[in-house]
């Protein structure tokens, strides 16, 4: 059967697409792979960071806009003026913080997801993954802005990702011990073999059920 042939495939002979497919498989308790578990956290961190950063710009923009639009406004008291001014700054913080927050979260999540796919497909952790993820994220982020915006955004994101990828590659090479890399790789292969054994058991159960059904049919015909 096709299942039996696939489960008997050696881990070393896996193609890039095989590793990508395995990335989306869930365990017995329904949890997703470790590589994908960090993406929601990255989205949350990116959204919070974007909200706070955009909010700081929003405070300045809201304050400047309020001062320009209310130079001739007559206030009942100094407290009234301060309260209106603070309301304008708060509104600017929330408005621009929300705008930056969801965009930063979307960008961070998309970049992390594409980086994980590239690393899994190539089975390598080097700067090329970061450049590819940056270029793809930049193009997808400006998907509805025209091809020129897509090209410019792709070039900018890939250029920014290059030094980040080189630093990550250098850190992975010099800071992470080789024994730890081997241990992580062995753990992944053990999980893969365990999953293959479970598929083999499932396949044998299905075959036994088919045989029993066939035997029951033959007996009923007799």
Automatic annotation (TrEMBL):
The keyword Coiled coil is annotated on this UniProt entry: yes
Coiled coil start-end: 185-219
Spans through the membrane: 39-59, 100-121
InterPro entries for the chain: TIMMDC1
Membrane topology, as annotated: Multi-pass membrane protein
Keyword Transmembrane helix: yes
Keyword field: Coiled coil, Membrane, Transmembrane, Transmembrane helix
Location in or out of the cell: Membrane
Entries under Pfam families matching the protein: Tim17
Cellular component terms (Gene Ontology): membrane; mitochondrion
Main location: membrane
UniProt record, GO biological process: mitochondrial respiratory chain complex I assembly
Family, as annotated: Belongs to the Tim17/Tim22/Tim23 family.
The protein's name in its UniProt record: Complex I assembly factor TIMMDC1, mitochondrial
Lineage per the UniProt record: Eukaryota, Metazoa, Cnidaria, Anthozoa, Hexacorallia
Gene coding for it: LOC116297880
């Amino acid at each position: 059967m096709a299942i039996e042939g696939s489960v008997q495939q050696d881990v070393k002979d896996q193609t890039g697409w095989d590793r990508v497919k395995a990335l989306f498989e869930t365990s017995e308790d329904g949890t997703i792979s470790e590589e994908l578990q960090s993406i929601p956290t990255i989205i949350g961190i990116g959204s919070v960071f974007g909200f706070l950063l955009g909010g700081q710009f929003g405070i300045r923009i809201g304050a400047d806009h309020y001062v320009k639009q209310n130079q001739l406004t007559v206030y009942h008291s100094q407290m009234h003026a301060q309260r209106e001014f603070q309301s304008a700054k708060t509104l600017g913080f929330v408005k621009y913080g929300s705008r930056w927050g969801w965009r930063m979260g979307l960008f961070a999540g998309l970049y992390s997801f594409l980086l994980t796919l590239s690393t899994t497909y190539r089975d390598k952790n080097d700067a090329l993954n970061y450049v590819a993820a940056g270029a793809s994220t930049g193009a997808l982020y400006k998907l509805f802005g025209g091809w020129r915006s897509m090209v410019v955004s792709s070039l900018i994101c890939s250029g920014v990702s290059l030094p980040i990828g080189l630093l990550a590659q250098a850190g992975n090479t010099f800071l992470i011990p080789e024994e730890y890399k081997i241990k992580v790789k062995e753990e992944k292969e053990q999980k893969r073999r365990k999953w293959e054994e479970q598929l083999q058991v499932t396949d044998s159960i299905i075959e036994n059920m088919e045989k029993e059904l066939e035997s029951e049919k033959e007996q009923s015909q007799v």
